[in-house]
UniProtKB/TrEMBL annotation:
This is DUF3455 domain-containing protein. It comes from Lentzea rhizosphaerae. Keywords: Signal. PANTHER family: CONSERVED FUNGAL PROTEIN (AFU_ORTHOLOGUE AFUA_1G14230) (PTHR35567:SF1), MALATE DEHYDROGENASE (AFU_ORTHOLOGUE AFUA_2G13800) (PTHR35567). Residues 1-25 form the signal peptide.
Length: 179
């Protein structure tokens, strides 16, 4: 019961931080399935890996003003399954933590593995640095951030030390070595 409440509260807070009410509506089929056939070659998972999870994220990209420019501080997003149920949280690291089984994966962007999207944070390919637990994120080798919407830092200058959060959405896929 406490875990379910924590997930609900985290989902609600992230929704409010993004400037609106929290939504538990299921993502559209296009958001969950569409990008597979259209993944840019720069962000494709290497051969020898298989897709093991696909979740739709809503949250914020938080930026801080450093030396007069906006720099990414951290993401904060809730990942949902096909039915719109919260299943993971995405935080600084970047790290994804399952709210179902506590497993986690930390990854880092692969150099040059990005696809620029107009008006949105880029699509990325990330390689796993470490995993924790034996649940859904155990054995993950790659993470993709696809079908991005929003999340871009504000244009122009800023006041040193200020922060701003910008709503974003993305489709995250998780792959593991094919056996």
């Amino acid at each position: 019961m406490k875990r379910a409440r924590l997930v609900f509260v985290a989902t609600a807070l992230l929704g409010l931080a993004a400037g609106g009410a929290a939504s538990t509506a299921a993502p559209t089929p296009e958001a969950m399935n569409g990008p597979d056939a259209q993944v840019a070659s720069a962000v494709k998972v290497p051969p020898g890996n298989k897709l093991v999870g696909k979740f739709y994220a809503k949250g914020v990209q938080t930026y801080t003003c450093t030396t007069g420019a906006w720099k990414l501080l951290e993401p904060a997003a809730t990942l949902a399954d096909r039915l719109g149920r919260a299943v993971a949280l995405h935080t600084r690291g970047p790290i994804w933590v399952s709210t179902v089984d506590g497993s986690a994966v930390e990854a880092a962007p692969v150099d040059g593995a990005r696809n620029e999207i107009a008006g949105a944070v880029p699509e990325l390919l990330l390689k796993t640095k470490s995993t924790r637990g034996s649940g859904v994120f155990a054995g993950i080798s790659y993470v993709q951030r696809l079908a991005t919407k929003g999340g871009v830092a504000p244009a122009g200058g800023c006041t040193e030390g200020t922060q701003t959060s910008v709503h974003y959405e993305a489709l995250y896929t998780f792959s593991a070595p094919a056996r």
